Amino acid sequence: MNPEIISNLPALQVVIPLLGALVCALLRRGSAAWFLTMLICLIMPVISIYLLVSVLDSGPISYSMGGWAPPFGIEYKVDVFNAFILVLVSSIGAVVLPYARLSVASEIKPEDRSWFYAMFLLCLTGLLGITITGDAFNAFVFLETSSLSTYVLIAMGRDRRALLAAYQYLILGSIGATFYIIGVGIIYTLTGTLNFADLAARIPEIEQTRSILAAAAFIVVGISLKFALFPLHVWLPNAYAYAPSTVSAFLASTATKVALYLLIRFLFSIFGIEIVTDKLALTDILIILSLAAMLGASTVAIFQHDVKRLFAYSSVAQIGYITLGIALANQAGLTGSLVHIFNHAIIKGALFLAVGAVVYRIGSAEIDDFSGLGKKMPVTMGCLLIGGLGLIGVPGTAGFISKWYLAVGAIDAGYIWLVFLLVLSSLLALIYVGRIVEVVWFRDPGPNLDGVKEAPLSLLLPAAAMAAATIYFGIETSQSVGIAAQAVETLLGLAK
Amino acid sequence: MTPDTLIAYALVLPLAGAALIWVFGKIPDLREFITLATGGGLLYMVISLLSLVLAGEQPELQVLDVVPGLALSFKVEPLGMLFALIASGLWIVNSIYSIGYMRGNNEPRQTPFYMSFAVAISSTIGVAFSENLFTLFLCYEVLTLSTYPLVTHKASVDAMKAGRLYLILLMATSMVLFLPAIIWTYTLAGTLSFTPGGILAGKADGLTVGILMGLYVFGIGKAATMPVHFWLPAAMVAPTPVSAFLHAVAVVKAGVFSVLKITVYIFGIDLLSSTGASDWLLYVSAGTVLLASLIAMTKDNLKARLAYSTISQLAYIVVGAMLATRLGMIGGGLQIAMHAVGKITLFMCAGAIYTAAHKTKVSELGGLGRVMPYTFAAFFIGSLSIIGLPPMGGAWSKWYLALGALEADQLFVVAILMISSLLNIAYLMPITFNGFFGKPAAGVETGKIKEAPLACLIAIALTATGTVLLFFFPGTIFELLQLIKTR
Amino acid sequence: MEFSKEIIANYNNWVTIFLMVSGLYIVVARGNMVKKLVGLSLFQTSVYLLYLSPGKILGGTPPIIAEGFTVYSNPLPHVLMLTAIVVGVATLSLGLALTVRINEEFGTIEEDEIFAKGDDQ
Q1: B149-207 per-position pLDDT tens digit
Q2: Which entry of A85, B167, B414, C38 is 20 to 30 Å from B193 by CA?
């Protein structure tokens, strides 16, 4: 490749989808917009994988936006950790998009389709931007780019309640973003810089002040709203339940994950572990909230009638696993978190894609309408089953690997009792997954399923790919765990 | 074939069989032939491995490291060899019987049925040959999941309820107790490999060992130690071949086998006997022996009675493990084999009675022995073995368990073994006597009832003969158990 | 005396905090969707002040290099807030657009009336 292009890859990662969004908005025909989006979504993983490989080979890449050297200009900084997340987000985009064509065509009005893809690309821009940037304010801008486009995407859902969900999310999401920017403002006043690396260097000087604690609190609460930490999760179930199927799958796999990335970045790379655990007492709070999420949200999930809502609550619970690992803040725990960010993205992707395929065929996600679907759509339901096993954390699936690390981390931190609560939550997952499995495989098909066929190939393949990945990353983990462990080393190394 | 490919084939062959069964699901004769051929092939692999193990080798197969410290690998050691031998041998018998039973009763959905069976036997072999706790746990869970469709086979409300209980209880215990125990063991010992003499010696104090052992014993819900036994009586709603599979071939045996294997290779009997950490579990399992026998006496449903009998007999094995002596362990190992052959005979007889006469209650069996003499004779032989009377194989295991109890200075265990044997007589013997000499129950016309289908009778005859042969020729089993290294 | 001086000296922060809290209060307390958005805007506006007021140095000039001036105000917060204002406007307009659509679909923009219809779980 042209060296000029290679040296500008970090910028291209964000600029290509941004320009693509603009073009999509101008295109009149939905199919043309889809084609362009598909093309971009195929280029993105190539770039991010290239970045990841070169970071693994030769260390972090720093890119000065517009030629202004950091810390004055905006720096894009790629290290192992965010390259890992970049690969995750861009690959999910590439898997979801082939699926989008039919699913979007069935759920969204023809004149809105090119707008849909414009918003989708804008959302992708935002998510990749948050991940790649090394600047606190730039992260805010991307956070809002992705959020604003997400509100629009959710509002495009078939049900009129989608509008309410989008409105609710807009209010809470904006409050979250504003909290974040308040925190950043305070830090900026204290240190005079917005560059992540520069902040990390200067924060030890002001560690003793109370303002830094206020700033940290604002930032943590703000980001927590974005990734739906229990009890700040109220927007999430409605948003995922009423959004178009493609959007549910894409958001569940990426949006919360990127916000979690930002939290980990702030806690470990910028504030440092001392402030987080000693001064903010974040460990105790996070452990309690994580447990509340894991047990509470899982329990609520058991009683849901809408499968998409059920999985949305399950997402809240699974996010609890990730924050638990963050709270443990040791090697194994944090590795568990990072691996679960990756694994949960795959598992939830498989589940939402499978449910979306059902919605495409029968037009409903009510659990009662799923009766006997195992006979009509065996492959789709097979994906659902594998994803479900992953949620439970059955060995041989990706879910087991993350739980293993979290449990080892809990024991390393001296909380043996935590292991029992961790597995108790898996048990709740067993109940809600079991409920679906029973309905799907052991009931006779109802009259609503007359003439229902297996989902078309373009819906089936992405779901099957995610399901296969769920198994693959449960057995062969040198990529997922290997890279996560390497990222954790740098994170905890910086924290020293 | 090299030893490691033998192991690989033994694991993969049944899975390939399952796939072929699916492909040829529309052609019942071919489908059943595949099942039997798979069983034959599997037995051949296992016997080839047996000769290696008897020669003192321990073939290994390393598949991959899932993450550092968690390896998917297999190793054939004598105890696992014994279990694999029993499971693969009885699976063929059970398959022959299944064909007779499923066709005789015109059961629906036979293709998924045989497929689940094949996947389950593959995971059973995986449990038997597992080299470390992680592999064992993985195969254990696959076994649970693959037998769930078998338990719910009838898809009736009762079957669904039983299936739910089965799945939730087994998954719950394994995830809430078994998995944390594994993780805890890993953080203490830094490894999960099954090692002669155990991996925990010097790394955990007596209290920790006691708690851990408890987590394992109750976490392995398949061993059905009270109070985690409820799933077993509930699961009897399944068709009889499934019950036989659960009770004799694979599921409960995988449970007690895991307990035994963990006792020997994770804790090490020296650690347990020196700390006395397993004593409290000895009392629990001895209590299970008695209590389950007493409950069995109250059950009128034949399969429920046999189910409680299984719970009691399984507890013998746990007792053998918890005695933490070499003789106790040998007794436990023998009991796995002897109980398997005896109980499969009883269950197949119960199924034969159901197929031929559609009777499920003990009180309805009066006089049936005179029209189904072969079935009832086999039932008699199986009963004797369960009770532990010579010349049946069951005598050996009781004998060694008693010796083990004496070696461990636990005289009360000997007393309990004797009381339990008396109870066994009380709940098993009346069935045969009533069958041959009793009057037909009201409304039962014995004249219209014929002997069970031939496939069923062949299978029953094979295992009934087996119980007798095991008394006279237990040599290979002893040899295997002697090969187990405890230090 | 010292204390009150402290309070007065930081009056810019007090204004910020007042706007912040009252904005947040409106969002939480009001059921009318337009009023909620007004509150949200107020809340976001407080942030502009939070950034801008420390950037201004008394006696400082605009940051243009020229003879005779040595004290400059910090230009960066202004630039940042320009962006933030854009984000705020975008949020507000999107929120209002959603409100219009909700009014079309549900016939009301009062949250409790919509919930009373039992449409939202």
Answers
A1: 888 888 788 888 888 888 888 888 888 899 889 988 988 888 888 988 888 888 888 88
A2: B167
Q: What's the pTM value of the predicted model, to 2 decimals? A: 0.88
Q: A416: which chain B residues are within 8 Å (Cβ-Cβ)?
A: 180, 184
* Burial bucket for residue B66 (CB in 10 Å: 0-12, 13-18, 19+): buried
Mean pLDDT of A451-474: 89
pLDDT, one tens digit per residue, over A122-155 is 999 999 999 999 889 999 999 999 999 999 999 9
List all residues 6 or more positions away from B171 whose beta carbon is below 8 Å from its beta carbon. A392, A427, A430, B141, B144
B15 vs A: CB within 8 A: no
Q: Which of A393, A408, A475 sits opposite B183 (nearest CB)?
A: A408
Q: What is the DSSP letter of B79?
A: H
Tokens of A53: 């490989």
pLDDT band at A495; cut points 50, 70, 90:
very low
Residues B403-420: pLDDT tens digits? 999 988 888 889 998 999
Tell me whether residues A420 and B175 touch, CB distance under 8 A.
no
- State how beta strands A61-64 and B60-67 pair: unpaired
Query: Coil, strand or helix: which one is A63?
Result: strand
- C7–A contact, CB cutoff 8 A: no
The residue in chain A having the minimum alpha-carbon distance to the alpha carbon of residue B155 is A442
A61: number of Cβ within 10 Å: 17
Q: List beta partners, residue B72.
A: B64
Tokens representing B294 are 């007493």
Residue spans per domain, chain A:
281-496
Residue entry with tokens 């449903």 = B301
Please enumerate in sequence order all residues whose Cβ is within 8 A of that of B219, keeping only pairs 6 or more positions apart, or say none. B173, B174, B176, B177, B178, B179, B180, B181
- Helix A30-58 vs helix A9-26: crossing angle, to nearest 10: 170
Chain B CB contacts of A481 below 8 Å: 67
| CA A312 and chain centroid, separation | 12
CB C76 within 8 A of CB A136: no
C121 belongs to a structural domain: no
**B183/A424 touch (CB, cutoff 8 Å), yes or no:** no
Has residue C121 got a pLDDT over 50? no
Q: What is the pLDDT at residue B140?
A: 92
> What ipTM did this prediction achieve?
0.90
Q: Which residues of A touch B (CB under 8 A)?
A: 389, 392-396, 401, 404-405, 407-408, 411-412, 416, 419-420, 423-424, 426-427, 430-431, 434, 438, 441-442, 474-477, 481
| Confidence band for C94, pLDDT divided at 50, 70 and 90 | very high
Chain A: nearest CA to C67, how far in angstroms? 24
CB contact at 8 A, B334 and B265: no
* Residue A284 DSSP label: H
**Poorest-pLDDT segment among A71-75, A114-118, A153-157, B41-45:** A71-75
Residue A396 and residue B141: Cβ atoms within 8 Å?
yes
Domain boundaries of chain B, sorted by first residue: 3-483
Task: Kindly state the tokens that stand for B178.
Answer: 């078994």
> In which domain, by residue range, is C109 found?
2-116
CA–CA separation, C14 and A441 (whole Å): 63
Furthest C-alpha separation in chain A: 70
pLDDT score at B139? 92
* Dist CA A79 CA A93 (whole Å): 21
Query: What pLDDT is attached to residue A69?
Result: 78
Place of tokens 């189910």: B307
Q: What is the pLDDT of residues A297-343, one digit of tens each?
A: 999 999 998 999 999 999 999 999 999 999 988 888 999 999 999 99
Measured between beta carbons, which residues in chain B are less than 8 angstroms from residue A396?
138, 141-142
Kindly tell me the sign of the dihedral angle through the C-alpha atoms of A60, A65, A66, A71: negative
Q: Considering only the C-alpha atoms of chain C, give the largest distance between any 2 of them, rounded to a whole number of Å.
A: 69
The secondary structure of chain A in percent helix, strand, coil, rounded to multiples of 5, reads 80, 5, 15
